[in-house]
Amino acid sequence: VQLVESGGGLVQSGGSLTLSCAASGNIFNLYGMGWYRRAPGKQRELVAILTTSGSTTYADSVKGRFTISRDNAKNLVYLQMNGLKPEDTATYYCNTPGLMSATGGFWGRGTQVTVSS
Fold this sequence. Notes:
Blueprint: E1 3-6, E2 9-12, E3 17-23, H1 27-31, E4 33-38, E5 45-50, E6 56-58, E7 66-71, E8 76-81, E9 90-95, H2 97-103, E10 111-116
Parallel strand pairs: 2-10
Antiparallel strand pairs: 1-3, 3-8, 4-5, 4-9, 5-6, 7-8, 9-10
C-alpha cells in the first residue's frame, strides 16, 4: 500500500491550496478516500470523505470552504481548500476507514499546511 500526499505549503489567511493524494492499486474504487488532519497538540480529525458512490461528507469546520474530488484518469484525489484560516494549520493525510481496517492502520507521511494570520 502506498499513500502519497502532496501540495501543502505556507499560505496567508484567506488563501487557497490544493492537496493531492496518490494511492497504489485500486484503493479509490475499493474504499473511497478521505482527508484527515492533525494539528500540533491535537488528535487527528476527519476533514472530508469521498465514498465509492461519489457522496461526500465534510467536517463542520470546513464546510463551504473545502472540496474533495477525484480525477479518475490520473488516479488522484484532491482537497481544494479555500478561505484558509490559521486554525487549518495541520499535517494533512489521506486515508479511509476501510483502508485503515484492511492495512492495520497504515498512514502516509502527510503534507504540511501552514496558514499565517
